[in-house]
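Quick one: structure tokens for this chain, please?
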Amino acid sequence: MKTFVIKYKAGNKIITTNETENSFYSLDIIDTDERFTVTLNPKKTFELVDFYVEFPYVFKDNDKFFAAGYQSWTVTKEMIKTDIQKGTIKLANIHKKVKYIASMTSDERIVEYSEKPGEFHSHGYTYVRNGDNLKLWGSLSENTGFSYFKVKMNDNYFSFRKDVLGKFITQSYKVFDVVYFEGGYDEVFDKYFALMDMPETRNGSMSGYTSWYNYFQDINEEIILRDLNGLDPAKEEVSIFQIDDGYETFVGDWIDPNPSRFPHGMGYIADKIHEKGYKAGIWLAPFSCQKISRIAKEHPDWLVQDENGVPYQGCLAWGGAYILDVYNEEVREYLRKVFDVVLNEWKFDMVKLDFLYSECILPRNGKCRGEIMREAMEFLRELVGDKLLLGCGVPMSSCLGLVDACRISCDVDLTYKGKIYNFLSVSNEILSAQHAINNSIFRRHLNGRAFMNDPDVFFLRNNNLKFTEEQKLLLAKINNLFGNVLFVSDNAGDYDEKQMALLKKFFRKTDEKVISAEYTDKENITIVSELDGKRKTFSFNIKKGKITQQ
């Protein structure tokens, strides 16, 4: 028996009710073994605050609950009854502003972390796995807001939830459209994603270079062209070469390349990439503008603001960045110009669009966060047209069917274990190769079904890096096995023969088929795969980056 819990505003009061019909609304409900839909029909205009449906569900001792992370960088994995899903570090609660900064990239504005054993949530879809059998629940209504699934495994509790905060109801509103499938891993995901309109490119692959993880923002024309030439010995395996952050004067001022760093402009760089026979890619954070950018100074009215007219900060990077409001028509015209220059004048073939989550930090204009994010992603897809769109830092359910490729992990770090704050659990989006490897494994079902999975880069170089040789090979193997976007940030011109041979090997997508992959304890993962009809087992310690069986 499902119980509805609905919160809405009536004047200055927030009403909480279990009613399926009253003077404000009526609900159309379809509840079958394979589908659950709820449509809210208003009798007057009002604002929703919360909406969820809860019901009993008996969890078995060996059940594993799949907790799909909120956005690209969020930790995603299977959980058991004794596990704890952690939020931001408790120290962040000392002040409202500290809490906001610590949880800026996360979903803590949407869902509360109880941090009790067996209490988890999952965004967009989830499954309960027992051995080889999966029971999958998946939302088909993410265009109307973020759906998530919340469980208390030790209390046999399950709920479907919708983040409706800020949603003004003026017409019929599809709250839930949840489908249910039971079967094997590939079977249930094939059925779920078959119900969505996915881009043809999802079945493709890309291999090549991105500049970020060697130089970060400290790039210039000389470095880029040198690294471009360094790939020549592996040319037959390279398909794309991407310029990352650092070419622009300031974040937000995208069509103002730094003349001291790129004196010939970015079109010149794209031409040089094309001469090699590669696609040319470039990075942007289209909804972000650095506090010191020209755009932020000249157009403060373009920024997302709170009720007091204070601009919202969308990320900590670059000394802080504000958020461009996609509902401001002048912002839309500016972005149309930016993408026209980048894609048509400079002639780049792919854009990597980053920090996208920031657009929906604040519900506004009578729309809830998920609705805003989906509409923002639809606008970006319109701007990119038939060029390639690689999403990053994006709520996963908002980009389905709209991106060609997507980051499915946090950033790797230049040290395998990550920085010291990794161990403080500041948030679930903190960078490290460990988290990246984990996500590559547990988001493998997205690869080729939803888009090309981008597991972030692997490394083969010897300098500017704190990885053992074994850790480098582990990361490269995982990326090749689970991802279809295979990038390095190394200057391959410095490689010796062995490193170049490895680069060619890992740029060629393996034909291995993953049969299963799971934690055997808190630190060890075992992967069973099949190649040419033969099964093999590969195990490793994820915390140490040490291979234990292959």
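The CA atoms of residues 68 and 122 lie 5 Å apart.
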